Structure formats: structure tokens, C-alpha cells
């Protein structure tokens, strides 16, 4: 396949647009001043220009790096004809992950600037509820995968159901965490989020392997 045969039109949104947004958006965030419409807008960044500048620059760097890595990966995955759901999953997970990173990082910067060294870092209820909603979204997406794909994609359907089950289990745990007091909420959420991340990454690798074996 030659370069001119690449599908710049039919799969542009999936393979090219999101990486370009991450790169161009990251470049813009490097110099953007505090405003109400563009950049890493969190309670911490909006309340302090210094926190805004530092948090936006760090998040922007990660956004550019991820976009640069994602673009050739997507092109390679197209040329090798990997299942398209791999790219779709990355398009959803990566922006959400960058947003969560920016939220936590900006909160820590705000605490450091205020010299609150004698108080432990506290996970806010809003962050716990945000992760809970992401888990619910994951459940619906993967349940839909089970019904959308044909029987020939049985490995993909099984992988989707396992991820949905993980989403149900951890959604319940996250919802319980949100009802706890600050110290207990932070302790439980950090533990549950760590395991949620580990299980999701491991099963994603298994899913990619199964899909490659079955669909190649």
C-alpha cells in the first residue's frame, strides 16, 4: 500500500483527528493565559494564575507526547489491519486520562502553594463521582460491543463483557467511596482506582492479543 492510498477521508476522525487535536491543543496550552473557554480549567487553575500556568504547561507536554505517539500508532494499526475498536477505545480513554491527570496535578499544586504541608492529600467527592460515571460509561460501551459484533468476533464480545463486569464491580466500590469521610475516602479510592487501572490494562492487553489471534 502506497502513501497515497491511506484513507484520509473515510477514517479521518478515528485515525487522525484526535491525535492532531492532542498535539495542536497541547501546543496552544503551553502559552495560553487564564481564561474561561480554553485550557485546563479546574477549580485550582481558575482560582490562581500561577497554578494555571504550571498545570497547563505540564498537561500540555503530556498531551503533545501522547498525540505524537498515537498518530504513528494509528497509522500502523490501519496498515496492519488491527481491529478498529482498539483505536476507538484509545480515543476515549486518553483524553479522559489527561483530564483526570490535570485535575489531580492542579489540586496538588494549589495545596503546595498554600503551604498546606501538615494536611494529607484529600480526594474530592467530585473526582470520585467523575470516575464512577466513567465506569458506568465503560459498562454501557462494552455491553453494546457484546450485541453489535457478529458471532465471528466472539473473542471481542467476551472481552467486552469481562470489562463490563469489571466496570460494574468498581462502580459499586467507587460509589461507596464517595460516601465516606475525607481520610477514608482518599485511602479507599486510591486503592480501588489502582486495582481498577491494573485490571483494565491487563485485560486490554489480553483483549488485543485475542483479537489479533482470532481476526488475523
Automatic annotation (TrEMBL):
Keywords, in A-Z order: Membrane, Transmembrane, Transmembrane helix
TM stretches of this protein: 12-32, 60-78, 84-106, 127-148, 154-173, 193-215
Coiled coil is among the record's keywords: no
Record Pfam families: SdpI
Keyword Transmembrane: yes
InterPro entries associated with the record: SdpI/YhfL (IPR025962)
Domain of life where this protein originates: Bacteria
Protein name: Hypothetical membrane protein
Species assigned in the record: Caldisericum exile (strain DSM 21853 / NBRC 104410 / AZM16c01)
Amino acid at each position: 500500500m502506497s502513501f497515497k492510498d491511506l484513507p484520509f477521508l473515510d477514517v479521518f476522525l478515528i485515525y487522525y483527528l484526535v491525535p492532531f487535536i492532542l498535539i495542536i491543543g497541547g501546543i496552544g496550552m503551553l502559552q495560553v493565559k487564564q481564561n474561561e473557554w480554553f485550557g485546563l480549567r479546574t477549580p485550582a487553575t481558575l482560582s490562581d494564575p500561577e497554578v494555571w500556568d504550571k498545570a497547563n504547561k505540564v498537561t500540555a507536554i503530556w498531551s503533545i507526547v501522547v498525540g505524537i505517539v498515537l498518530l504513528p500508532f494509528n497509522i500502523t494499526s490501519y496498515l496492519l489491519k488491527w481491529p478498529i475498536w482498539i483505536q476507538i477505545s484509545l480515543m476515549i480513554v486518553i483524553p479522559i486520562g489527561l483530564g483526570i491527570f490535570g485535575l489531580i496535578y492542579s489540586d496538588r499544586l494549589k495545596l503546595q502553594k498554600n503551604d498546606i504541608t501538615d494536611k494529607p492529600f484529600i480526594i474530592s467527592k467530585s473526582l470520585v463521582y467523575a470516575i464512577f460515571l466513567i465506569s458506568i460509561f465503560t459498562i454501557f460501551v462494552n455491553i453494546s460491543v457484546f450485541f453489535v459484533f457478529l458471532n465471528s468476533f466472539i473473542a471481542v464480545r467476551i472481552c467486552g463483557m469481562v470489562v463490563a463486569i469489571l466496570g460494574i464491580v468498581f462502580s459499586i466500590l467507587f460509589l461507596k467511596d464517595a460516601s465516606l469521610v475525607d481520610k477514608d475516602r482518599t485511602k479507599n479510592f486510591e486503592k480501588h482506582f489502582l486495582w481498577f487501572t491494573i485490571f483494565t490494562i491487563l485485560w486490554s492487553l489480553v483483549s488485543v492479543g485475542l483479537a489479533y489471534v482470532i481476526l488475523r
